[in-house]
């Protein structure tokens, strides 16, 4: 493993834009160097934000770090880029299994067509169905996800695999926050990567729907920022219409101390992401995509 990591690191140093960052990040993950693996994966995604396999690698790193929320976000991003991505479906099935939602895990894994099922997907599906009470049909061993991620299972006899559904009380399913402002402030916390990043979801009247924003002194200024942003989306739409450029999809501003990215949200809302000036622009765009996806899911669930 050290030789493989050294070789891949040398290859990436020679060509920083190379796709070798993916096998390098995964090798570091398997070696237990999770912090380094995370940095390599994020830097690679900054250059190649639309590679589903790269999001899959990042998701595995988050899963090994115990952050199932971010892992789920990355696997969902991989599926948006490639709806047939088998490993992403396996990963999300793994997350749902860990949360105790075996029915959802079974539905997720069943979406992979039989012709495209990898051995890992087929084995995970067999185990989930066994855990739901179905008997294995061929007496073959069943694969049980272990703590290191969805692609590194442990093989156990079918009889031992017939375990009951994990109790909901011991493995609660994380839920999106309710419209209670005291909870919606944390809606985007699992999507953002650092304390120098903020995200707000603002309605058309300049009121905060979700997210938080603090200034350099730690003071909550979300309501002030949201009020100043009232009407930005409609003004952008008007400008694009006059210029004949079609609908606006995003706006990115590089200021002296921060980078600000905006995009229209559901139902006339506006999403705003800010990050420190040293943050790569590509990463800010990626964060904006993640925040938009989280906002859409949350608005559907609380509506």
Outline the structure in words:
The chain is α+β, with helices and mostly antiparallel strands. It folds into 2 domains: 2-161, Tetratricopeptide repeat domain (Serine Threonine Protein Phosphatase 5, Tetratricopeptide repeat); 181-302, Dynein light chain 2a, cytoplasmic (Beta-Lactamase, 2-Layer Sandwich), CATH 3.30.450. Helix content is 49%, strand content 14%. The strands form 2 sheets. A 5-stranded antiparallel β-sheet has the order 4-3-7-6-5, with helices on both faces. The protein has a two-stranded antiparallel sheet with strand order 1-2. α2 packs antiparallel against α3 (34-47), α3 crosses α13 and α6 (86-98) runs parallel beside α8.
- The residue fraction in helices comes out at 40-55%
Question: Could you give the distance between the termini?
Answer: 49 Å
Number of strands: 7
What would CATH call the class of the largest domain?
Mainly Alpha
Strand order of the largest sheet: 4-3-7-6-5
Order of helices and strands: HHHHHHHHEEHHEEHHEEEH
By CATH, the architecture of the largest domain is named: Alpha Horseshoe
């Amino acid at each position: 493993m050290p030789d493989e990591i050294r070789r891949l690191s040398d290859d990436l140093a020679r060509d920083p834009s190379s796709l070798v960052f993916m096998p390098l990040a995964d090798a570091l993950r398997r070696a237990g160097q999770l912090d380094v693996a995370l940095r390599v994966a994020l830097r690679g995604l900054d250059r190649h934000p639309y590679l589903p396999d790269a999001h899959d690698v990042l998701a595995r790193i988050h899963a090994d770090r115990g952050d199932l929320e971010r892992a789920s976000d990355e696997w969902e991003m991989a599926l948006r880029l490639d709806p047939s991505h088998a490993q992403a479906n396996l990963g999300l099935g793994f997350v749902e299994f860990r949360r105790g939602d075996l029915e959802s895990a079974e539905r997720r894994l069943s979406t992979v067509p039989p012709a495209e099922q990898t051995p890992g997907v087929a084995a995970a599906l067999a185990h989930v169905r066994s855990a739901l009470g179905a008997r294995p049909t061929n007496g073959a061993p069943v694969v049980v996800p272990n703590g290191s991620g969805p692609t590194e299972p442990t093989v156990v006899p079918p009889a031992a695999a017939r375990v009951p559904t994990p109790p909901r009380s011991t493995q609660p399913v994380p839920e999106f926050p309710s419209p209670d402002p005291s909870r919606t402030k944390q809606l985007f916390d699992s999507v953002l990567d650092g304390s120098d990043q903020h995200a707000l979801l603002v309605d058309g009247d300049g009121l905060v729907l979700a997210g938080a924003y603090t200034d350099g002194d730690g003071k909550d200024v979300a309501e002030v920022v949201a009020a100043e942003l009232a009407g930005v989306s409609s003004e952008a739409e008007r400008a694009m219409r006059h210029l004949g450029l079609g609908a606006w999809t995003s706006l990115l501003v590089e200021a002296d101390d921060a980078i600000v990215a905006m995009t229209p949200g559901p139902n006339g809302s506006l999403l705003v992401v800010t990050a420190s000036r040293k943050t790569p622009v590509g990463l800010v765009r990626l964060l904006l995509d993640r925040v938009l996806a989280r906002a859409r899911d949350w608005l559907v669930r609380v509506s």
